[in-house]
Amino acid sequence: MKFFLDTADLNEIEEAASWGAIAGVTTNPTLYSRIGGKLSDFHNHIKRICDIVDGPVSAESVAMTRDEIVRDGLQLAEIADNVVVKVPTMVEGLAATKELAKHGVPVNMTLCFSVPQAVLAARAGARYISPFIGRFDDISEDGLEQVANIVTAINNYDFTSSTVNGEQVEIIAASVRSANHVTQCALMGADIATVPFGVLKKMVQHPLTDRGLDSFMKDWEKVQNA
Ligand code: E4P
């Protein structure tokens, strides 16, 4: 399983990259707005992220028609070789994905909440599909079960004839809210989890690690004073 960092914050990205912990980054309009991002600086900001991370960096198109999404996507793809264009799961998004894949541009199909949506995304040529866990839980549904179903359904088929360079589509478990979400996603075989920095930090921690470290330090003090 690989981890992407779900943020537009350069400090968080630099820190997580220094841990050797992340294989990519996902951003969205909310995450960019959260760091005070300006429209005029958007492409430069994505470039800065691409310079830090040696892996796919998802940048979202906010266009609503296929032609605009394709135009947007082609411009985003010009920023750096590792840009992945994030496209919402909707009819215009599917059509744009098909077109972008033809141009060799990898797409991360986002806001995916069902097996049919995921299979359609894969068929259209998406390189990544992002089912959301937390937002599904928020409406009293089972986000983890939905991701498990999507992983099973996608792994039942070979979509390599539709994707850029014949690569197998990968599932990015998104809207991850806890380390337990990550555990469950790893057990069900999700290819990637994109996690906020706060969740990444919690993933490193365990109370028994802290307790063990504390007793080792105390015992080492005894050794030093012996
Ligand atoms: C995924 O690519 C999205 O950016 C993200 O995971 C959404 O998470 P949220 O539901 O916590 O906003």
From TrEMBL:
Keywords: Cytoplasm, Schiff base
Subcellular location: Cytoplasm
Molecular function in Gene Ontology: aldehyde-lyase activity
UniProt entry tagged with the keyword Flavoprotein: no
Main location: cytoplasm
Keyword Cytoplasm found: yes
Domain of life: Bacteria
Gene Ontology biological process terms, A to Z: carbohydrate metabolic process
CDD domains assigned: Transaldolase_FSA
A Gene Ontology term for the protein's cellular component: cytoplasm
InterPro entries in alphabetical order: Aldolase_TIM, TAL/FSA, Transaldolase_3B/F6P_aldolase, TSA/FSA_arc/bac
Protein name, UniProt field: Transaldolase
Organism: Denitrobacterium detoxificans
